[in-house]
C-alpha cells in the first residue's frame, strides 16, 4: 500500500503537531478522515499479538481499540464482571464511537477481550470478524508453523473480504513501514536512558498510543520530525526515575501524576508501551514466517509467558538499562493474566533489591488515592535508595 500517496499529515490536518495526546483524543476524526480520503477499510484490533502488517498490506488502516471511560449503562448487560478496560471498550463500541470500523480481529489471548469480541459479533452482524489463533506457548517447537499458517488463513480471509490478493510486494512494503516505525520509536525511547531525559513519561506514552491508531507511514514522517525537535531540547532536571509494569494502560494519567510529584517515568513494560514496538521483523523469503517469528518473539506478554518465564528477566533488564529507582506495578481489577503473573515479577524485584509499589486500579485512576500512594512511595525512595544518592553504593555494588 502506498500510504504516503493517499493521506494527509494527521498532525497538520488536526492542527496538533507533536501534541500526541491530541492525536489520541481525536483518533475517531482521524480514522474517519482517512477513510473518506482513501476509501479503504478500517480494521479494529484488540490484542497485542495482532500482525498489523497483514492488514496494512491489504490496504487497510489497522487501529487499536483503546479503552476510554464514559458513563457506562450498557456493558453490565453483556459482560458482567469483566475488567474495566474491556467494559469500556464494549460501552464505546455499542454506543457507536467506532462506527467507522469495518471489521474486528481478536487474537487468542485474554478471555475478557474475547468476550468483548463476542459481544460485538452478537450485536453488529454486518462487520467483518476474524478470530486469529496464536499459540499460548509462543516458544514451543511447532508454534512458529502454527502462527504462520494462521496468518495465511487471515490473509485469505482478507482477500475474500476485500477482493484483493496480498502480494509479496505488498507484504514487503508493509513490513518496511512497520519496521521503520518501530525503529523510530526505539530511537526515541533510547533517549529516556539519559540521566536527564528530554522526553517525559507522559509524552512518550501519548506518542505510543497515537502510533497505534494512526497510519504508520504518516506517523513515521511525524516521528522523524519529532526526533529532530528532541535534538534541540535541553535536558530536563534530574529526577527520581520510575518504571511502569502491569496491565496495559490506555492513557498517560499515571505518568502525569508521577510528574506532578517531581519524578519521571523513564521506562515501561506494557503491552501498549515498549512491548508494542520492541522487536522488528527480520525479513526472509517466507514473509509470513518472518512475521510469525516477530510476533512470537516480541517481549512476552503476561498473556503468553506460560512455558518458560522470560518476562521477569526482560523487566529486570529494562530496569537496569534505564537505571530506574523504583517500579510501579499496576494491575487492572479483574485482570487475570497479570494477577497470575505478578508473583514472578515481585519475586524478581525483591531478589534484586528493586523497590516497587503494587496497586490495583480501574480504567480511571482514583486520583487522590493514587497521588497519596505515589507520595508515600517516593518518600521511601528519596532518603537514599535512588540513583541521585548513589543507591548502588548502599549495597556495596559499585
Ligand atoms: S486488563 Fe487484563 S483482563 Fe483486561 S483485557 Fe487487558 S489483559 Fe485482559
Q: Uncertain runs with pLDDT below 50, 5 residues or more?
A: 1-16
Widest sheet: strand order? 2-1-3-4
Helical amount among residues, as a percent range?
40-55%
What is the tally of beta strands?
A: 8
Total helix count? 19
Strand content: 5-15%
Order of helices and strands: HHHHEHEHHEHEHHHHEHEHHHEHEHH
Instruction: Provide the CATH top-level class of the largest domain.
Output: Alpha Beta
Q: Pairing-aware structural class of the strands and helices?
A: alpha/beta
The rounded Rg comes to 21 Å
Description:
By secondary structure, the chain is of the alpha/beta class. The chain folds into two domains: 3-174, 3-Layer(aba) Sandwich (Rossmann fold); 238-394, Rossmann fold (3-Layer(aba) Sandwich), CATH 3.40.50. The chain is built from 19 helices and eight strands. The protein has helices at residues 3-6, 10-14, 20-25, 27-38, 52-57, 75-78, 84-94, 111-123, 143-162, 168-190, 201-211, 216-232, 253-260, 274-277, 287-297, 311-321, 336-351, 367-381, 391-394, and strands at residues 42-45, 61-64, 103-107, 128-132, 241-246, 264-269, 326-332, 356-361. The strands form two sheets. The protein has a four-stranded parallel sheet, sandwiched between helices. Strand 5, helix 13 (253-260) and strand 6 form a beta-alpha-beta unit. Helix 7 runs parallel beside helix 8 (111-123). The longest helix is centred in the middle third of the chain and has 23 residues, at 168-190. The chain is globular and about 65 Å long. The termini are far apart. The chain binds iron/sulfur cluster. Iron/sulfur cluster (SF4) is lined by residues 83, 85-86, 110, 112-113, 247-248, 332, 335-338.
